[in-house]
Write a structure and sequence with these properties.
By secondary structure, the protein is mainly beta. The protein is built from one helix and 14 strands. Strands 3, 4, 5, 6, 7, 8, 9 and 14 form an eight-stranded mixed beta sheet that branches. It is globular, with a radius of gyration of 16 Å. Residues 1-10 and 159-171 have low confidence and may be disordered.
Amino acid sequence: MIGKRPDEIRLETSSSYRYVVLSMGQLGLLIPQHQVNALEPSFDVQRSKGGDATVWISVTGASSPVYCLSENLQIIHEVPKDRNICVLLDIGDGLFGILSDQVVMLTQAELDIRPLPACMQGPDTPIRGLVLYGEKVLCVTTADDLHACLGVKPEAVGKPDPAQLLNGEAV
């Protein structure tokens, strides 16, 4: 099972607690801001061949895998033209990136986070709650749960084999 059971999740209630919305097409993921390490333009990433990662990025001397996700949280290797922001997420023992269309910061005071309905709960879902924000439903998750649902090996969080980079080709 990914993360904690939904009834074990204590959603933060401080009005000053901050979240980041990662938009990917119609999908909006709401992640605690303290789990975001950096925002980088997508032209800073390098394509890789093989492996799970769509691309790699090097920030402050360390390389991290970057994934492009479909609206149903599946890794895709063809990067849509609107995915121009790389959000580096911290999972404790490393970083990984998600390519996003748009990134917005919100405070807890702007949100009414609801637990995930029982009919949507499952052992493999990274989604822990839902938020109606304007006309959009946002899915509450964490960096750890999102990384776990990608099904990538933990050792993939780190440096790529230099032979896997395609001449430093940018996305």
